[in-house]
Amino acid sequence: xxxxxxxxxxxxxxxxxxxxxxxxxxxxxxxxxxxxxxxxxxxxxxxxxxxxxxxxxxxxxxxxxxxxxxxxxxxxxxxxxxxxxxxxxxxxxxxxxxxxxxxxxxxxxxxxxxxxxxxxxxxxxxxxxxxxxxxxxxxxx
Length: 141
Known about the structure:
By secondary structure, the chain is mainly α. The chain has helices spanning 2-32, 39-74, 80-107, 115-121, 124-138. It has one domain (2-138). The protein is built from five helices and no strands.
């Protein structure tokens, strides 16, 4: 029964993390198109900071904690699919770090990237998610 509770909390954490990972770069698209010092720019700064601090980062931590616990309880650490999944989740965590840096850059009114850059970045979590789901469901190796 513990395994199923852990799995449920892992899935809930992943959903929250992914929702934020999809939304934050989209905020950056709009923020990059907004002049600095405007009320809209200041609103974006608050939204980005709160999203990162209150949702995305706690969800990422919970995802790692519950995911590793599920892997331990399920005896999956010797499975090749899990190793591949962990590599992709590590890459997703790296992207999370990049987005956190972008929040700090926007907060300092120092963004030099275009909205096109953030539109491209916005697609990366989707690609990672597709790979992770295929690995977990199909367990190809």
